[in-house]
Amino acid sequence: MFEMFEGNSKKAVNTEITATDFKTYWRKEKERTASSVSGLHFSHYKAAAESDRISEIHAIMTHMAFNRGVPLVRWTKG
User: Considering only CA atoms, which of 8, 17, 20, 12 is closest in space to residue 66?
Assistant: First the structure.
């Protein structure tokens, strides 16, 4: 089974999250979906995806949390 992973251990994986990535993802999601117990739903993120500045901020925060292995507090609430 592990043969399929052989040779893949040294391949780099691009983990950068850009404002374009943020916009592309959130623009296609359904607006009425609840995303957390915080009460925010997807329309908050869809609205953010319409702003270059807010998309950049969200992308930076997500990228930093992902690459440092420290989740944002809201991610730990379900």
Answer: 17
* 26 C-beta neighbours (distance < 10 Å), count: 20
Q: Read off the pLDDT of residues 35-76 as tens digits, 9 standing for 90 and up.
A: 666 666 788 888 999 999 999 998 998 888 888 888 877 777
Q: How far apart are CA 3 and CA 53, in angstroms?
A: 44
The answer to whether 61 touches 20, Cβ cutoff 8 Å, is no
Identity of the amino acid at 21: D
What digits encode the pLDDT tens for the residues 9-32?
Answer: 667 778 888 999 989 988 888 777
In this prediction the pTM is 0.64
Instruction: Please state, in angstroms and rounded to a whole number, the distance separating the CA atoms of residues 73 and 59.
Output: 16
How far is the C-alpha of 72 from the C-alpha of 40, rounded, in Å? 15
